[in-house]
Each structure stands twice: as structure tokens, then as C-alpha cells.
Amino acid sequence: xxxxxxxxxxxxxxxxxxxxxxxxxxxxxxxxxxxxxxxxxxxxxxxxxxxxxxxxxxxxxxxxxxxxxxxxxxxxxxxxxxxxxxxxxxxxxxxxxxxxxxxxxxxxxxxxxxxxxxxxxxxxxxxxxxxxxxxxxxxxxxxxxxxxxxxxxxxxxxxxxxxxxxxxxxxxxxxxxxxxxxxxxxxxxxxxxxxxxxxxxxxxxxxxxxxxxxxxxxxxxxxxxxxxxxxxxxxxxxxxxxxxxxxxxxxxxxxxxxxxxxxxxxxxxxxxxxxxxxxxxxxxxxxxxxxxxxxxxxxxxxxxxxxxxxxxxxxxxxxxxxxxxxxxxxxxxxxxxxxxxxxxxxxxx
Length: 349
What we know:
Elements: E1 2-3, E2 10-15, E3 21-25, H1 31-46, H2 53-57, H3 60-74, E4 81-83, E5 89-91, H4 96-103, H5 113-127, H6 134-155, H7 181-190, H8 196-205, H9 209-213, E6 220-221, E7 226-229, E8 240-243, H10 246-253, H11 267-277, H12 287-298, H13 303-310, H14 315-321, H15 326-348
Antiparallel strand pairs: 1-2, 2-3, 4-5, 6-7, 7-8
Helix pairs in contact: 3-6, 5-6, 8-12, 12-13
């Protein structure tokens, strides 16, 4: 312990449990402060902990690489990992690009609650005016970053206190977007013919897009009007038998049966163009899943059966998608009035 040339602060020297020497500034001109800092470091070494300086060495890029490694090893969200022409990998996540920009080169030890709040504000400026609610999107970004940090801490066996993540309530951000059958027909016809089967399947079944894009012909039985999605493809880890309409079967019979069943190339761009053309400017693809849930409920399909089709595992999430609109309320009242009138007629007789 002592001072080094050019600095007015006391420095400490110690060896960690691997025998590596470390030198740290106490940030103080008081020898007593440096001594206390040295005592803490030696006590940590005695408990078998790694040096706190190890957290300074882990950068955002390291955490990102550990996340991808975990996804590959655990076979998690493999459909979200994309290999770029240069051989590097990236994540198909709406916020990964902005996370990369904001946290580039930043050390794990630098990411505290204040920095996370700065990220939230910067991200909100970028998202301003978008269709998807800001809070929902930013919460997903922060959740991804938190997973990176937790994995990095576990991978490097670090003693690092995670900061508080400034997540906000999404109670007011539940989307209410949907498309009625008649309007959907306009949307379907406005889409290129090769993309129509994918859109129709999505709208009729509410099957998650990630699973839908992976469906291959071996899983399709057109004679039985069924598609069987295996458990290693679904989000909830359960096999999903999905019935398909005669209309969709007819569309699929016209296709060459090689590779994936549904063509999805440039789907988002084509969807946006078609939706704008038919006056559905605020509609996003995921609204079709919500529409499917409501259409099933309107048709009188039992909750448990409907959940088998859409792939929802819990009633709470399923009911969240079953958004009620003004038409539903009016229809319910008409149904109630008609029921009451019939009982009155019986009583009068």
C-alpha cells in the first residue's frame, strides 16, 4: 500500500485467489481509507470470492456473446438468431440494435440504475410516435439486457449487485387492435398471392408467427386438414395440433411441397403496404393473433379448445387477448333483451 508517482491518492496491492496481482486506487488521500479498502479485498479473497475488478473487465459485448452462447446451448429462441454474411451472429429482437448502440464498450460495473434510466429516455425518443406502446417495447429491451447481465455474472462467477431495472407498468399498454372478417378479406386480397396462405393461417388459427414460419411439409396432413407442430417448436413446449380450413387446404395444394409450408419472405413490408391500402394503417401483424382469439370466442368455441388451437397455455393470457369492443357489448345486450322478452311472453301466456 502506498502512493504512485503522479497521483495524490493511496493505492493498494494484493493477490487474488489465482495468484494474480491487482493494483487499485483508493480514491482517497487518507491512508486509513486505503487500509480499509485493502482489508475488504483480503476478506473477499478469504471467502473465495473473485476480485471486484473482474466485473470491470466484462463489457457489454462479452455479455451479448454469452447470451447467444446460452441460446445455442439451451436451444432457446433459435429462430431469433441470425447469422450474418461475415459469420457473426445477431439477434432478431426489435431492441438489440439500439442496445448495441447505447451500451457499446460499456463495462458491467458501469451499468447502474441511473444509466438504465438514461437508456429508457433515449429509447423513448427513438420510439416516439410508433404504433407499439413505448413502455412495452422498452421493458422488453431491459429484460433482454437483464438476462445478459445475469448470465455474465453466472458465467464469470462474479459477486456483483444487480442494479434496479426501471421497468414501468404495461397495464395501460394492452393493444386493442384487431380486424373484422370482412376487412380481413380486403387485406388478404391486397397481399401478394404467395403470402396469402401464411396470412390466412395466422388469422384463422392465431398460431404464433415464430412457430408458423418453421412449419415444414412433414408436419402437414392436408387430407385430414391438420398441421401438427412438435413440442420442440412451440413456445410452451407442448405439441400443437392445428386444424386448418378447407380454403387454406386448397391454397396449400397448389404449392410445391419442399422446405417450409408458408412463404414469409418480405412479409412485413408487404403487410404494411396492404394494410395501408385498405385503410388499416394502425394494424400490426400480431393483431391477427388477437383477432383469431376473438373470432374463436365469438363462434362459441370453448376456452380450453380454443387455447389448443392458438397455443396459449394460461387462461389469464388467453383472456387478455379476447378484447371486447363496442359491437360485442351491443350484441350481448340485444341477446339479453331477446332472452328477457321470450321469458315475458311465456309468463303472459
